[in-house]
């Protein structure tokens, strides 16, 4: 966790940035300035929905800025202060904020790519599925591409773990909040990333979600990485993960 925070501090040092309020929460915008219209990568942090923040989650901002891409890192209210339904609602509201207000901050609302790690991968999946956009006043294609890392896409097993002592799900709610069980009619490009040394459950969930998403998705297994460090490859411009993200962004 300290490495996430240190690399994030180093990445944003000297970058143009601002913190803004959206839906009573905050998000940081890095690597863009008013008058620009940069494509935007929205990164959703992990921590089993109950830890971490935007302050540990901007480690890719400099490498993306060097490629002409802005980074947006939203906070969301952590459990147990918020239900998982409310956390999902907040991250969807962050996309609505970018779509509505982003141009004034140098962001192109027509080129939004989302990603996140672990629980943030789950939240990424909840931005990929159909059916939520109308409530937030955004078009069905507001999100153009996605890169979830080591995501939780069927969260019903969470009901049998210590995490549920904080999250408090039952099976019906868990199913309703599982991207792998929800409609995926508009399948846009996605790269589903998992580490070679990830836990077997995370690896299996990633394989199944790639299959659920269909031929629009690729599965990327990153060698010599584990659940916690695979996402840090986004901070290394020459890494396969970083190159894949830039290709994904440029494809939209």
From TrEMBL:
List each copy of the BD-FAE-like domain by range.
Answer: 36-136
Q: Where are the transmembrane segments?
A: none
Q: Which InterPro entries match?
A: AB_hydrolase_fold, BD-FAE-like_dom, GDXG_lipolytic_enzyme
Superkingdom, taxonomy of origin: Bacteria
Gene Ontology terms, MF aspect = hydrolase activity
Gene3D superfamilies reported for this sequence: alpha/beta hydrolase
Q: Could you list this entry's UniProt keywords, alphabetically sorted.
A: Hydrolase
Concerning SUPFAM superfamilies, the annotation shows:
alpha/beta-Hydrolases
The answer to whether UniProt assigns keyword Hydrolase to this entry is yes
Q: Which PANTHER family match?
A: AB HYDROLASE SUPERFAMILY PROTEIN C4A8.06C, KYNURENINE FORMAMIDASE
Q: What is this protein called?
A: Alpha/beta hydrolase
Q: Which organism is it from?
A: Actinomadura syzygii
